[in-house]
Amino acid sequence: METNTIESMEALRALARKSFQTLGRSETDKDKCTVALEINSYAELQLLMMHLLKVATAALDADLHNVTSVEGTSLAVKNILELGVQLIPLEEAYFLDEVCGRLGEVER
Q1: Which of 19, 44, 72, 81 has its CA at a distance of 20 to 30 angstroms from the CA of residue 87?
Q2: Is the same domain home to 43 and 81?
Q3: Is residue 10 part of a domain?
Q4: 7 lies in which domain range?
Q5: In a structure prediction context, what are the per-residue pLDDT tens digits for the chain, which is 108 residues long?
Q6: Are 93 and 106 part of one and the same domain?
């Protein structure tokens, strides 16, 4: 029984190392994590940050002036949505599915 538990824990650790990819440990503060974004250049990063601020500003302006539609923000919204897609932790979700499956096997 104990050997099976040790082997299961080792398999789980190996799977976790392979799966937890969205967050990384901060090199400067071990209590914090980092997220890597796939971008092509510093200019693209700056544009992405500008679009994030434009979308937030447009939302605040619309709310402030009771506007029901905001023109000219399609590109900014598209880029922010693409950023959101990059931040979805798919590998971690696969890991959780695997753990749930294994736990289900143990409980049967």
Answers
A1: 72
A2: yes
A3: yes
A4: 1-22+89-108
A5: 577 777 888 888 888 888 887 888 889 998 898 888 888 999 988 988 888 888 888 888 777 777 666 667 788 888 888 888 888 888 888 888 888 787 766 554
A6: yes
Residue 43 included in any domain: yes
**Buried b / exposed e along 10-43 (16+ C-beta atoms within 10 A):** eeeeeeeeebeebeeeeeeeeeeeeeeeeeeeee
Tokens 């914090």 belong to: 32
Residues 43 and 84 in one domain: yes
**Beta-carbon contacts of residue 68 (< 8 Å; ≥ 6 apart):** 62
**For the whole model, what pTM was predicted?**
0.57
Rounded to whole angstroms, how far apart are CA atoms 24 and 81? Answer: 22
Closest CA to 78 of 57, 47, 37: 47
Whether residue 31 lies inside any domain: the answer is: no
Structure tokens at 34: 């980092």
